[in-house]
Amino acid sequence: MAKVGxxxxxxxxxxxxxxxxxxxxxxxxxxxxxxKMRSLHSLVPGERSTVVLRVLSVTSRRSRANRxxxxxxxxxxxxxxxxxFFNQGWRARQLSExxxxxxxxxxxxxxxxxxxxxxxxxxxxxxxxxxxAAGFAKVVPIYPSSDKAGIVSWQIARWVDExxxxxxxxxxxxxxxxxxxxxxxxxxxxLQAIHAPRSMDEVEPxxxxxxxxxxxxxxxxxxxxxxxxxxxxxxxxHLPAESRLDLLEQFWSSFPFEPTRSQAAAMSxxxxxMATERPMHRLLQGDVGSGKTLVAADAMLRCVAAxxxxxxxxxxxxxxxxxxxxxxxxxxxxxxxxxxxxxGRRPLSVGLLTxxxxxxxxxxxxxxxxxxxxxxxxxxxxxxxxxxxxAALGLVVVDEQHRFGVEQRxxxxxxxxAAGTVPDMLVMTATPIPRTAALTFFGDLDLTTxxxxxxxxxxxxxxxxxDPQAAAQAWNRVREEVALGHRxxxxxxxxxxxxxMEARSAxxxxxxxxxxxxxxxxxxxxxxxxxxxxxxxxxxxxxxxxVGVLVATTVVEVGVxxxxxxxxxxxxxxxxxxxxxxxxxxxxxxxxxxxWCFLLSENPSPVAAERLAALxxxxxxxxxxxxxxxxxxxxxxxxxxxxxxSELRLASLSEDADLVVRAxxxxxxxxxxxxxxxxxxxxxxxxxxxxxxxxxMLSKS
Length: 701
Ligand code: ADP
Ligand code: MG
What we know:
Structural class: alpha/beta
Radius of gyration: 31 Å
Helix content: 25-40%
Number of helices: 22
CATH superfamily of the largest domain: P-loop containing nucleotide triphosphate hydrolases
Number of strands: 28
CATH class of the largest domain: Alpha Beta
Number of domains: 3
Bound molecules: adenosine-5'-diphosphate, magnesium ion
Strand order of the largest sheet: 6-7-4-3-2-5-8
């Protein structure tokens, strides 16, 4: 950038702009269409408007109240106006005679002359007669500028203009046949038009093309990750061993219910993956209660039937205990051949590996894992880093809860790989995410979706309790249900940033309830700060009914499965996000019993009120996930965090859904035809440049 001086270089770097590519992807934040501007002459006093002005003169003085006061006399050719700035002494330096600017403000008439007080100002040219094209353009781009770095919009416009001119026609990473099939503009035209549109009509097609490029880079990176895994790694071929042919049949013939259509489809898709040598890398998503555990159990059993071991990783110890219980119940009664004794059999063994095992039991379990007498191991993901050696690991199921990013997943796979083979991997999400987000953030995984709930569920009746009377009814319901032998959860507010505070508030709330609304009922406390043994004990007491009401922090958010639980009360519900509330609600309504979810919140903010109303209106997790995406945008989606160059600047996962899907398909095709992209250097280079250092990551929180 020839015209950029050393000071500006530093300032630009502060804004994350280090080279031409960065500069050209620093897009205008809005445009001003000068052909649509009002003339000063046509404005009546009191009207708010944007006008294009040229500065005639600038004076600076102190007001009577000793405030800095800068006045800029300006004209738009039809009339004059004085811009008056209070307490903005720096305007005297910013505005100079001849400068062109856009001012937005209220036109007033003071002592017979037109003025605007403290208008919003965007400078788009510093000097009259500036050869800068922006000075004459009909549409003026307004760039995100940086007061801190001292860079203003017109400077950026000028550098961009220079960069575009010098770059000339640029290589287009998207092959021409794709461009025409997708109806997308060429890269050069799009860049030109997004920075210097000749009319506003050019902006949207330009944005679409560049938005597509952002999405394509993400998809290309994911497709390459996948293809390199497939090319380099040998997976486990899961086909039933001769002696274990009947295992799946044993299971399904004794299983109390039929899989749903959706579960059956998911299971056969997974079975097909598992039977091949290509390592499976699949995401299983489904609404709360759609029965993901059964699908995972079937996959693990398939793994055991092939003579391998399976692992189920849970995000927390509470969940590990829970999963261990359900998997043991489902599979623990099955029999596998005892390899050491001809014709002998032993029960399928499901181990639980957590931090609170005694040294002795842990030693025994680890030995069992190493000699293949333990078929399935459930634990937290620390399990893989604790020097546990598997005799023959075939499948890793991760109950993800959005905790792992791309890198953690590959780390996990590396740890789990032994003897040159890579185990199959099945990742389960806790709540559904919109397809566009799944493709973007889990683009390296194949996607299986459970889109129906098992039959016989009565939907959870959700009530947003807005006032004390409604809250009183909620507590009545809790008492009635507990009297019927059912159970209830009370979830306490999330105190930002402090688990200890959260724990304290749950404890205080339990004590309060014990001598008020829930007097005489047996209450249990569950929070993240409790020792694991105590957590397990209280969960057990809740499961058996010894404890009728569990007062908890969001520890119960994911996966806890107690069929007799029929009431969920969420206090200060406005503090939770949509996905979280939907998860919490999913803790009830897990049987044919009628269930309720009460969201207590008396004074929510308008945004929170919208969330609560959404929860009340629908129980469809996919619908809610879509709303969540629209309300919050992709930046905060599920705690998804994008950084720096990999962020989506122009693409929107909710509005550009078609582009997301097309980008996924195009990337798959390009990469499968040319895995190293050696024939498309521009695409390879920019993918590495934009996604290299910090590929799209999910928060670890
Ligand atoms: P999630 O997808 O939220 O993890 P779970 O796997 O915990 O859901 O299943 C929710 C409940 O539905 C469990 O109690 C499970 O036993 C039950 N369930 C799962 N599949 C079926 C089915 N096909 N028919 C009836 N009940 C089922
Ligand atoms: Mg589950």
